[in-house]
Amino acid sequence: MKEFYSNGKLLLTGEYFVLDGAKSLAVPTTCGQDLMVKPIKQPQLIWNSFTNEGECWLEAIFDLPKLRLVSATYDAVEDGGKGSLAEDLFEILLEVRKLNPSFLNSENGFEVKTNLTFPKNWGLGTSSTLINNLANWASVNPYELLLNTFGGSGYDIACAQNDNPILYTNNGIEPFIEKVNFAPSFKEQLYFVYLNKKQNSREGIQRFKELKGNLTSEVSQISSLTDAFLSCTNIVDFEKLLFEHEQIVSKTIQLKPVQELLFNDYFGQTKSLGAWGGDFILATGNENTRAYFNQKGLQTVIPYQDLIL
């Protein structure tokens, strides 16, 4: 039995701009996904994926060594078109084999089980943790595998592999990663709020690419803001940095910041994380923060230190 584990992720600075090389601050989460591999004698890959509540959300069987999808079941109401999830997995496995031709290329097979430790709709890295776990199993470059499958900057792969905050600079399959100490004295005044909506990162990335134009100045500004995040020593200045970051992104992607759109009466400052319009936001606040967002119908309000490694 082999077991692999990858951390979930959140991007505190640099959403969208991380694609173009902006220095960004990313943090791994206390939750993630494991992948357990058990050798079996029959020539099949038997795959089962489980939610954080132990419910199987994907079952698939592949014949080996041809790596042919022969059956699949899952929650079709939740996950869309017939076979799509299993076919996505199939495409990923094919890309792994391109990078390592010996992967799953034998008469003996495997039972694979994956287990999330966060709700699948939270957007904390269901895909990136899978990519990193598969890459570790197959001994291939996870950034190259990501590039060949889902795409993106790769910061989520870096979070999957690191147990502390990092500065991340995109550079293809060999990014620059620097471990940093991000434990601000005001971290007890920081909260993560789930917006009850899963955002499609690929759609957000496509919008950014269509609207961005020449961003040399903006990339430099975001990189400078990332440095300022790390050196900030008080909550008032931190809120100013959050606001400034939101304005830069808003102007570029031509969308209103989440505070202006949804929380214009909030007493703290909020900032979108990742693709705008869903998943988590970061909010400064106090003992009244939870009650405020609960009244807005948002029940998932997590203190910073409870979610971040």
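The record above closes out task 2.4. Task 2.5 opens with a second protein, given below.
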Amino acid sequence: MALRRSQKQKLYRYAVYVVLIAIAVWVALTANWARLVPLFLNPEVALKMLPSIITVGLVNTLWFTAVAFVAGLILGVILALMKMSVIGPFRWIATVYVELFRGLPAILTIFTIAFILPIAAGVPGKDLGGPVVLGLIGLILVAAAYMAETIRAGLQAVPKGQTEAARSLGMSPMATTFWIVIPQGFRIIIPPLTNEFVLLLKDTSLLFVAGTFIWSKELTTFARDASTQNANGTPLIMAALLYLIVTIPLTRFTAWLERRMARER
């Protein structure tokens, strides 16, 4: 007797579930837990890391991310508007900026701003805010380049009829941009900007290249140094879990936003 299409699909799903469960059981049974637990899941080391890994590492990570995101968003809006401008030099400057900072590795940009820029300017790095501030500026410059393209795409997705209607009511081009185009464009780009926030959260780990102090260590650097001091990988596992605790709700929120906006459209 031939199976219906729905039955075949159900059978296929069950087969996939069985295979995945079998792989998970095989990994659990073959893993060397006697060695893994002391090295990476040591409760004594984990207790030593609390609460400092949260109050220092996680808090600094969230603080650096928030500052870089807000500053990068402001600069990204300016760059997006420059790239859409009818004035040629504005477009050229924005295009060169975006292509430059998107083309360079973020860690190289952070290193350049933190060390090469003070030497080129003939000013000690501490007079410019120190390595942490300079490294954060480098991260902001990179974030702005990526956000600028996202924002530009969102603004250009606003129907031209909206702009034409605003102009027909006597609004100036600048007023039309700030009161009509930007608010509608931001509704479109909220999900990708949320993804950008998640990426930026993880990119704060690159700030270690600029040098850190005890009070300024972000989550990855804090966990790495703790692992070295304790000769144990448990702090790294704790850092990974803290990253997931923050990023998973954000990615789920992004998916919910995308589904809601799709229904509205």
